[in-house]
Amino acid sequence: MITARAAASFEPVGRSVASARSFVRDTLQGWGFADIVDDAVVLTSELVTNAVVHAGTSADLLCLRSDEGVRIEVADRYPEREIPLQGTAINMGSPDREGGRGLQLCAALAGRWGVEYTPTHKTVWFQLDLPARAVGTRAAGPALPADLLPLADGRVRVAVIQIDRTGHITAWSEDAEELFGYPAEQVTGKPLTDLAAWPHTPGTSTGIAEALQLSRWEGSYGIRAASGRVTPVYASHLRVRDTGGEPSTVCLLVRDHERAVLQTPLRVPASDTSTTSEGQGTDPFEVFIGYPAPDDLDGLLQRTVERARDMLDGDSAFLLLATDDETELEVRASTGLPSARQRFARVPVEAGPGRYGSARMPAVHDDLTAVPGAVPLLNGTGMRSIVTVPLKVEGRLTGSLGVAAEAPARYSNEEALRLQFAADRIALAVESARLGELERLRRGSLNFLVEASDLLAGTLDRDQTLALMAQMTVPTLATWCAVYTIAHQASEPYLSYVLHEDEELIDGIKSLLSKVPPPDPVPTPGARVWTAPGEVAHQAALRSSMRSLGLSGGPTRQVTPGIGPTLATASAVGGETVVLPLVARNRVIGMLTLGKPTDEHFRQEILELAEDLSRRAALALDNARLYSERTAISQALQRSLLPPELPVIAGVEVEVIYRAAGEGNEVGGDFYDVFPIRDGAYGFAIGDVCGTGPNAAAVTGLARHALRLLAREGLSGPAVLERLNSAILDEGARSRFLTLLYGEMRPQEDGSAELKVVCAGHPLPLRLRQDGSVEPAAEPQPLLGVIEDLELYEQTVTLDPGDVLLCVTDGVTERREGARMLGDDGLADVLTTCTGLTAGAVAARIMRAVERFASDAPSDDMAILAMRVPGLHKD
Asked: Where is the PAS domain (predicted)?
């Protein structure tokens, strides 16, 4: 029973043969009979050629679908009355003859075939039986070895997302939550564009908003998961409407490497040559490619190689595009070859001397086994004969198109001319599409580099810079990356960071790279191939496989569990690996290593983008190194300006709190010190140099060290400060005025402490008595570093048991919140609440009150020195 039919008529011109092949291919693919398409196309090609070329009449083509298979009829208007008698052997001629091969092919490929005659027509028909398969199966593929099947996870998850007419998410399935990490309530109501990283597939020109408006769409893009990483997905969109007429889009998404679950074969209607108006010529490009032509480069190239293979009845075909300098060709599309292994592989334009070693001239090889390596892309594929032709635009080489067959001596110069004619028709369209793709990639590259520069400029931390470098390259530029750093000119490269898009493989790659000598730190710009990781991974995987089979001795069960990670690591680093130098300030400071999984190659545009990124990353990494070194030096010098640990003074509690203003500063213009002078006597000081930062810290160091030296010479307090004043004035233009509270303390046997104090322009020290009263413990005197002749005097203060002496810098008293200031009175009010507290508790309460006085961070250095006499303990 006939379940479907399709018919077309073709004019008696040579291009009709290609149109007939396209018609049959598209029809059978539309019916879901992809497994018999190739046989049907070959037979149709021969029969239509007999009709339109040899018979010289138009050809009527009829395709009939039934439950048993497909019947194709080709009728011409050249009736033949030589009806073969039943039981008589049919002489179909020699296989080498130009004619008669169509019937021979029918006899060889078709399940049934025959010839029918009418007074005006002759019809040759053949029937191809469908392979056995389950009822209701729309399409079936051939049986394949397990290693050639599409890669999928243990469980394939299909995310179902529904989008309303405004582009907002209305439904989010459990598999979507599992794939991307967002619960439904978190994403419902949000635009899909907030999650989509568009586009993921190179050459995709349709935006996400436009794709959601199409009735049906398939393609690749990325979804930014809850972890922040972009998950490449393959999506199938179907636009529907509900009972109320409201349109929405149902999106099915799987991981990109599982695209076989959703992807459907590309079906493009063939050109209808029968409707061409009389006298109107048909575009040769459309005749070869079909109408409408794909609007993206990858689709155009793939259609080109399929049409070229069909045109010459080849077993495989490939198309390569030239680099900008025309020195190399890059594989961009192939059919009948392991495309995953060949894609983006590069070969030189001039592979050898002579005409046949150059891609700039057409070439025919009758037998590749006679010239091993003549076409490196076909090594190990079983192809014997090949014809290649160049693609040129205005005399410039833009690519190369090749068709190959498993049989030797399959092609002649005539086929080369036919293929060159087709290449000339498509060269301009291919170059135009390539330039359009390059422009889109360059715009994307500029945005990528701008974002990368902003991120790298936002940190001066070395470890964070290394992490940013890796996260920007994976998975945008590479599947995995490793960063080597070189500390000094003579040191060896050190593996500092490793990242893979699958976090479970990071440790395996890190372990593998640790066993491989690092790449040489060559300063030459550009990416260079590094084969060591792939070779070592292959050897490790081979050893693990042999051990798992028990070929190296020992129980198999003990080694089998380790084979999984080893093979996974080998597959992860088995593709192309390149190294880019990190050069900053004319020195190689490291290497950026990028890698692909097994049999994959880098695009030239990606390598150029990676080179630009490596230059920016190298400068950021070197800036982080210099900043770290300067910070370490600064912190070491600053720590040298701080006094050592406070001495333990019998009968006196001492506590200090010190805060320097400014990020990264440990010492500023404020300083303090408590030190022993001689037996039973201790010196203490708290001061404030004019200003903050390094210049003030320099005077701080001078003052603190001078105080210790002068005090231990046995000088009195006023004499110590007068000599310090002279030393500051001797600094000349670098000198700064200094406020200083200096005193000498001597604990007494009765539990009190005697203090001799000089207050040179500094905030007065406050004395807290046990009854809660607060009073100044000294009188103000001139500050240091302003006038030469100072007349200072010291005052004696006795701290009774339970008394507290509080000394602060002006950063405490001048703490501001708008127009309000803490001031001396505010400090005294806080101190009155500290009765009975230890020296440490007093200092902590003062600091807490200062911090709470204003919401902003302090802008001035602060120092608090609290001394308390607890008195004698009685048993």
From this structure: 160-190
147: confidence class by pLDDT, cuts 50, 70, 90: low
Q: Are 253 and 176 in contact (CB under 8 A)?
A: yes
For residue 649, the SS3 value is: coil
Q: Name the fold adopted by 2-80+101-129.
A: Heat Shock Protein 90 (3.30.565)
Residue 373 tokens read as 């390596």
Instruction: Say whether pLDDT at 371 is over 90.
Output: no
Q: Which residues, in sequence order, are CB contacts of 504 under 8 Å at separation 6+? A: none
Q: How far apart are CA 258 and CA 158, in angstroms?
A: 10
Q: Cβ–Cβ contacts within 10 Å for residue 504, how many?
A: 9
Residues with Cβ < 8 Å from 717, sequence gap 6 or more?
742, 743, 744, 756, 757, 758, 792, 794
Spatial CA neighbour of 48 closest among 273, 208, 237: 273
Question: Cis bond leading into 150, ω under 30°?
Answer: no
Confidence (pLDDT) at 844: 94
Which spans in 143-234 are helix H? 174-180, 184-187, 208-213
Cα gap 427→421, rounded to integer Å? 10
CA distance 874 to 744: 27
- Give me the CATH topology for the region 642-869: Phosphatase 2c; domain 1 (3.60.40)
Three-state secondary structure along 544-592?
HHHHHCCCCCCCHHHCHHHHHHHHHHHHHCCCCEEEEEEEECCEEEEEE
Question: CA-CA distance, 140 to 492, in Å (whole number)?
Answer: 56
C-alpha dihedral, 712 to 713 to 716 to 720, nearest 10°: -90
Q: What is the CA angle 252-254-256, rounded to 5? A: 130
CB atoms within 10 A of CB 15: 17
- Phi and psi at 485, nearest 5°, equal -120, 150
In this structure, are residues 525 and 540 in contact, taking their beta carbons and an 8 Å threshold?
Answer: no
Question: pLDDT tens, 776-808?
Answer: 999 999 999 888 888 899 999 999 999 999 999
Interval 584-620: pLDDT, tens = 888 888 889 998 887 677 877 788 888 888 888 888 8
Assess whether the region 2-80+101-129 and the region 642-869 belong to the same CATH fold: no
Kindly state the percentage of the chain with pLDDT values over 70.
83
pLDDT digits (tens, 9 = 90+) for 231-254: 888 888 888 888 888 889 999 999
Q: Pick the closest to residue 191 from 215, 216, 171, 163 (CA basis).
A: 163
Sequence ranges of the domains in the chain:
2-80+101-129, 159-261, 293-347+357-438, 461-547+566-630, 642-869
Fold observed for domain 293-347+357-438: Beta-Lactamase (3.30.450)
